[in-house]
Specification:
This is Protein kinase domain-containing protein. InterPro entries: Kinase-like_dom_sf, Prot_kinase_dom, Protein_kinase_ATP_BS. It is built from three helices and six strands. By secondary structure, it is α+β, with helices and mostly antiparallel strands. It has a single domain, classed as Phosphorylase Kinase, domain 1 (2-Layer Sandwich), CATH 3.30.200. The chain is elongated, with a radius of gyration of 20 Å. It starts with a strand and ends in a 5-residue tail after the last helix. About 15% of the residues are buried.
């Protein structure tokens, strides 16, 4: 199933205006909100911050392309995206001017149990990393013979 192009208005509606009550968390690049679609499906909406317009577009495109390639049972599904520009009026140097505001967001399936890092202790996480590195080492030392 291909991710859908979703309007910013719909994202506002399903997250109750990006309500603080529905906020799941935040990171460097934005906030994540829980949303409820018209058909009753729970989703996670990652609303991206505007830091630097040129850089933001490049990061959005890179993340979008990466997400489009992912398809695995153990990775949350990428359901949709929003990339919209709207004209807004704002004050600049004491005058009202017309400006463009870009909305960028990504939608994923909602995971009831939250982020995996909330369920792994430091020691278990370290053990998993060590085991993973041993597994990778086997592939490096013993490449598959054709």
């Amino acid at each position: 199933m291909e991710p859908e192009d979703v309007s910013f208005q719909i994202l506002k509606e399903i997250t109750n205006g990006f309500s603080e009550l529905l906020k799941l968390g935040e990171g460097t690049f934005g906030e994540v909100y829980k949303g409820l679609t018209e058909n009753g499906e729970e989703v996670a909406v990652k609303k991206l911050r505007c830091i630097d317009p040129c850089l933001d577009d490049k990061l959005f495109e890179k993340e979008f392309k990466t997400l489009m390639k992912l398809n695995h049972n153990n990775i949350v599904r990428f359901l949709g995206y929003c990339y919209e520009t709207e004209k807004i009026s704002m004050e600049c140097d004491g005058r009202i001017v017309l400006a463009e505001k870009t909305h960028r967001a990504l939608c994923f399936e909602f995971m009831d149990n939250g982020s995996l890092d909330k369920h792994l202790s430091g020691m278990l996480l370290l053990l998993l990393c060590i085991q993973g590195s041993f597994g990778l080492r086997v592939f490096v030392d013993h490449p598959k013979e054709e």
